Amino acid sequence: QKEVEQNSGPLSVPEGAIASLNCTYSDRGSQSFFWYRQYSGKSPELIMSIYSNGDKEDGRFTAQLNKASQYVSLLIRDSQPSDSATYLCAVNSGTYKYIFGTGTRLKVLA
Amino acid sequence: SQTIHQWPATLVQPVGSPLSLECTVEGTSNPNLYWYRQAAGRGLQLLFYSVGIGQISSEVPQNLSASRPQDRQFILSSKKLLLSDSGFYLCAVGGRRDSPLHFGNGTRLTVT
What we know:
Number of helices of chain A: 0
Structural class of chain B: mainly beta
Mean pLDDT of chain B: 93
Low-confidence stretches of chain A: none
Oligomer: heterodimer
Distance between the termini of chain A: 40 Å
Shape of chain B: globular
Strand content of chain B: over 45%
């Protein structure tokens, strides 16, 4: 069974701090990695995609991928109360299936 | 850009009643279509996916079924709902196999 693991949290950080969210996956053949943000009662929305080892930055968000260690992380700089949400990690192994983690709940304290 | 329509937004149904949820997509051709379910406080569970008209792959054996009668239409059905069918049902659209999924607004189903 291919799995994607995330700490459920909640992860609490003060406003302005860096939030670090982590995800590990079991399938070494995984090729595509995605981070989604899901506000309570809403559907997931895509934040970042990453396909190669290393860092990818988009505004306040940085995704980091290490295929050798089978983990992907998301850093949120200058965290804002509006960033409070559940963050889902998703992995694709080059098939039509996308496997999602159960998500990490982030709380940014004003 | 593509638009994903899902309806209804919320639904309350008694146990044993039938179900039909519809998802339609605009702004793209020959999309890969997905149905996910999210139970309260849980992760996303893949139910069905489709790579073309009439092509349905089922991931979880249960009392749900899916159909794709048109290129941009995906329907989730049940003949008799169970209490355990309650959840947040999400339609998603994908393109190439390495591209991300995009989700509709979802249908919150409560089976009573």
